[in-house]
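User: Here's a protein and a ligand (zinc ion). What would the complex look like?
Assistant: Let me lay out the input and then the predicted complex.
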Amino acid sequence: MTFLRTLIWFVLAGVAMLAAVWLAERPGNVTVEWHGWRLDTSVGVLLVAIVILILVGVALWLVYRWIMGAPSALIEGWGDSRRRKGYRELTQGLAAVAAGDGVEAQRHARRAEQLLAEPPLTLLLSAQAAQLNGDREAATRAFKAMLEDDEMAFLGLRGLIAQSLREGNQQQALAYAQRAFALRPQTPWVVHSLFDMQAQTGQWKAAQETLETGMRQKVVTADRGRTLRALLLVERSRACESDGNDGQALALAREAFGLAPERIAVASRLAELQIKTADSRRALKTLERAWSLAPHPDLAVLYLKATGESDPLKRVGIVRRLVAQKPDDMESQLALAQAALDAGLWGEARRYLDAAGGSNPSVRVCRLMAEVEERAQSGQAKVHEWLSRAALAPADKAWRCAACGAHHESWRPVCESCGAFGSLHWRAPGTFGQVLPPANGDGARPALGMTTMNTVSGG
Ligand SMILES: [Zn+2]
């Protein structure tokens, strides 16, 4: 390009030189007379004067154009810098949010709002800044304003759900979660939090529908969905029973057992109803199968109840039949020890407890040993020895929440500590691997209920 331009200049300069030479070779004079004025000059000078006049004219035209166009160009430039400043404020505000500096964030949010005139963009920052400052009203106002904008509505709902949960208003949180679910049923946190809230408020059927949508959208794995569905059916079965509909309750329990026979709560529900409807034969089968998958003291109690046997010695034989499904399990040894103790068979009880305890007997084993020694009248020294061992012994299996690790005295569908559904398992402590603390700082229920569907299954 530069070469071409240079060439053009050379050509122009050449032409100008040729013209000058041509004019010089043809000298001539020009005389102008006008109203008593007289001008004598050469043709060359006149031509140069004409060229200068044209150049001055062009320059004047350019100055005129610049002056006329200036205001709009200025305004445009000013608007540009205003927007730039606005975005800078927005960026700095978001950085302040990330750094947890609420006051700074709010200052930037206010300035960005003035500069940008684009509410959806600045609303999120304002809401987060207000949240950081603990200004719930301002945060709620900003999140609600986001609902007006199609693009931001979903984000606004997320904020409002968290806000309602923090305020302990579960009904409102549930209503917002339903709206969010209607907008985007494929988003994992929406499915999870709606499911948790429905389960926490005992809306078992609605929770089941949410779960099924979640499974269709691949938000919940098939295996996790299967167990959760079984546990929901158990709760629906309980509800039917308290409505006096035993037939429907039994049908639901049977369906649950078909899905997850390895869950103790599922097996006990079915066995309970089978005993209640005088179908002991089936109850025994249910419990034997359940024992082979996951032994638990409650199952042994139900097994004895199903047989209706009251003679203590015969009851030992019955328990032996049940634990034959899994003879080496610690629960099997403990069930036999308990039956032997009830029948006054001290030697046998000690033998089972020794087998259950091994080299490091647990609290339950030590306490049962103390009971055996007391009832066998072996002397207070022996009883005390076992009781003091119990104080230092390793903890037993218990109902522990896989989501938060909380310990519960008995099975319940929703963890009382973190609100997760179906997260209780009959486990020894420290067998869940990593236990995550609740997501929000308040230590109460998780802000957006990500617990239930992500917790460990089985057990
Ligand atoms: Zn929990």
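Summary: Residues 401, 403-404, 406, 415, 417-418, 420, 423 surround zinc ion (CB under 6 Å).
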